Every structure is written in structure tokens, then in C-alpha cells.
């Protein structure tokens, strides 16, 4: 689950965007570099322990719990801070996104869910059985296992939950100096920026703005007048095969080899850290995501987020995180998914 503030480096205004999960979980902190997430005891417990673990640099920094309007919120590092019009991808890790105890409780007290039947029907009208069609409802265990099976969770150990493309710059005001110093002027003494000959308002992309900023840092002053949010896409429920996932990431990075290289390096660093993390060995990590963020300036980062379903194991028990899950062994397949994710991005980098 992730609600994301999309930020402009020109004006600090937040437009809240949700890629997946329940609405209303996040709110602005009122302090630059921080966001507030509605508190839950399991996530507070995990974040507090992660701050003292090897994984500290792989998760959002946790700054304690604060009260707002009678509710408790986790005060977290804003992972989008420092990015310009960030592209964001939420990748849910593991071979399942439900706890074993959820499955057990749902079986012991089965309840027909009309809302889950409707969700199933919207994806595949043929998925419900004749009995489920007659009841116009399904049980939660049935829905949860069906949901994992149609995605890449069971086959690859992760699934893509949603993507937020970059925020395009839709209007700029450009101020040019009356004369360029000789040492800055290109051949002929003219400013070699296509389409920009005089001060005024222009429509262009943030990538072009970045090019200008790097080429003419002393001669162009560009002011953002309007920023248009890219629309979110969450239509990945049936993205299942390796090739389908490769195509999604190919579209996400838009051919930016430097961003792809940075993502790969970061994922390998995260994997190395997970393999030595005491916290990771002793917890069942369910429903957690890897959050990918990059922008047109080739800045890129990946972080582990969402620990509301991460639970400690009984004393003395540890997980491999790669062994196949069988009910009762509590394996989550997290490292299996990360291995596959690294392999997919590596193959994309070779194309």
C-alpha cells in the first residue's frame, strides 16, 4: 500500500496519489522531507527495530509517532523528496500477500464476500464457479489464492501493483538575459535552444528543461507555471509472465540506461543487506513492497516499504525466504522474488 506525494522542486505543493491499498492512510507532515502514515502497532514495531538493523538504509527513516486530529501517525522519510516529477513503481514482494493466520481464520469462520466476487468478475467473468455465480459471492481464502495465481506472485515471487509516470511540465516562463557573455555564447552568439528565441511562455517537457539547466546554467531562468500529474496505472492484475514484466519495466524506465543501472545496483545492495539482516531472518515479511523512484535527471532509488503484515517468528525459528511455501512453514518467497526481479532487470539491461 502506498500513497505518494508528487513534488515540484519549484513550489512545494503536494498532490496526493495512490498506487495501491486503502485511501486516506497518508497526510502531509508540514515539514519538508517527511510524511505521515496512519499508525499501526505491527508497522511501528517493525520500523523501530529496522532503525537498529542492517536494513536501516534500505527503508524510509522512522522519526517516531505523532498525534494529528486525534489519530496516531508514523513520521516517515518522504522518499520522493529530491526528485523532480518522479516516476514511481510499487512492486509487491513474495509468493503470497496474506498471512497464514488470515487463511486459517477465514477457513474457520468462512464468510461469503460479495465485494470480492465483484472484483473477481471484473478481471475474469469465467473465474467464479457455478456455485459462486449463484451465490454472487466468494470466500476470502478463495479470492486471495485466486488473486495470487493470476499475477506473477506465485510464478516469480513478486507482482507489480501500480505505476505513476513522471509529472510533465506543461507550461514554463523563460527569462533570457539580453546578452550572453562571450565565453558562454555558442557559435554566432545565439542561444542554441530549439524553439526559445526570446523571453516568454513555452510548453515543453521536463526532460528538455533538464537539458537547458545543464547546458545553460547561467543564462536561463525557467519558472514552472503549471505541472500536470501523469495518470496512475494499476491495471497489472494479470501481468504474470516474465516477458510481460520485462515489457512493463521497459516502459517504466523509458530506455534510460543510467536509471536502469542504478536500479540494478540498488537491488543487488538490498539483496546483500537482506542476507545479513537479523531482522529479516526472524520475520515473516508479507505484503511489503519495493518502491522504485526515478526522474529525468537520472536520479533513482529503491526502498522496502509497508510492514503492517510483517510478523516476528517464534523464538529460535528463522526463514530462508527462498524455499517454496507450504502451509505451516511461513516461508514468504521474498528473496525468490528479488532474485527474479534482479534477473529480469539484468536481462533488460542487456537488450
UniProtKB/TrEMBL annotation:
Molecular function terms, GO-annotated: inositol hexakisphosphate kinase activity
Superkingdom field: Eukaryota
Enzyme class: transferase
A single GO cellular-component term on record: cytoplasm
Enzyme Commission no: 2.7.-.-
Pfam families assigned: IPK
GO biological process: inositol phosphate biosynthetic process; phosphatidylinositol phosphate biosynthetic process
Sorted UniProt keywords: Kinase, Transferase
Family stated for the protein in its record: Belongs to the inositol phosphokinase (IPK) family.
Protein name as it appears in the record: Kinase
UniProt organism field: Cervus elaphus hippelaphus
